[in-house]
């Protein structure tokens, strides 16, 4: 009975298929078309996800393989010091140390710009910039005087550069002299005095000029960024060369070549090496494009401040304080704040550094990674600014582990956050001309907590959304509070200058 029913069902199905084949073939294709589209989309999504995972794992695998190859290089096969004065190879020979390896590679955004869709988004930003320029942005920019006294800032930069160019290298040459009793001790003492004078020039001179002449924020930016850069480069040069020089100072080994040190002062890295991977030629059109893009980002940032921040915060200190007004101002500042964050990233970490890398044929263009895909703040801190992260990792975190022991990883990480937070707050204080520790609290307290709580174990789109939400709020808090303090100090000047008056936030009590 069952076999008869199954035969009847097969015959009915066959008859329906034949009928559809004769007069309903189009209907079959119509029913199958949505399934085919869905299947194609699914395959494309799987392919994209697979390629992203494979690319990330392959990059990590290659980096680790290169590092292990460098570490596995036989010590006995290395050239003797008398024939190869590369003192950076003997800086630290500790089993836990992972040194920075430079390889020739493009910046991530340059790779993304090879895709037409990303280029279209970039063209939209260019079109918006043209509209802003037409709307008298250039006039507002000149009237604000943000770059006033720029020649004075550039004149101050000259002695800072000459001190960085001459003192660390001459100090290393004094320390590299052959050991000959008291003469070496005299040279070593003279080198220490020169380094102290160099540190005094870099730390005191720009602060003195900025305070005495009341430089505007943009000119202060030039001085403070160059001050921090020269200090970090000087430390890296001495940290990478002095240990090797002291180990072989009695064997006739000299200091590295002056040309390698001069190249290091201008190349876009904070880690000293005697040689770096180089590109075969210079693309001057690429250099000009990056400088033009950096200038466009500056104009964008000025427009955002003048059109979106000044009208809101200029008179806010004249009104009575209320929690509602403060909350609304923070929410209003989230948009301008995140735009300025993206503009700073694109202008400096991509355009400015790539322009100098191209002019100097510097091969390793990995100045940042895909921080926008981060699902944890620990990954965001590692990928946002690779140039500074490498310096902190090499000279604060690793050296901290060397001094405190392998079990003090959290203490070493806390030291990294403390130094980074202090330097960030110092930069804000220098540029704006007042002390208001908003950045210090956000970076050290909240950033430290998020680094330990939102770690790499968290993955998925929801965590990326959470990270961006917190970034939006953090930028809104910074823009809102710093703008309020800026105008409060202009509306409520101190009748008498005191220390507590300088360090106490004026926006808390200014109600003219």
UniProtKB/TrEMBL annotation:
Keywords of this entry: Acyltransferase, Endoplasmic reticulum, Membrane, Transferase, Transmembrane, Transmembrane helix
Statement: the UniProt record of this protein carries the keyword Acyltransferase: yes
Any one GO molecular function term: cholesterol O-acyltransferase activity
Keyword Magnesium on entry: no
Places the protein is found: Endoplasmic reticulum membrane
Biased composition (Basic and acidic residues): 9-28
Protein's name according to its UniProt entry: O-acyltransferase
